[in-house]
Amino acid sequence: GTTCMTEGDNAAGDSCTYANDCQAGYGCVGQDPNYFCEQLCTAATTCDTGTCQGIGGIYTGHADVGFCTE
Hints:
With 70 residues, this protein is mainly beta. It contains no helices and four strands. It has strands at 26-31, 34-41, 51-54, 66-69. It has a four-stranded antiparallel sheet with strand order 1-2-4-3, with no helix packed on it.
């Protein structure tokens, strides 16, 4: 599945607060209070670098979404 959000200005690795703080293709992931923009992925996509790690229900209704880790 997909979801649409407005694109933010924060680049990969930048700190963030909201999912739409990050540039297109990136999401705000981490653990409170440390959230960073990471490339989003699914099992059906490849990461620019690293592998896709699932984040479960963080994005409600999108359990197949993950982020790329090195």
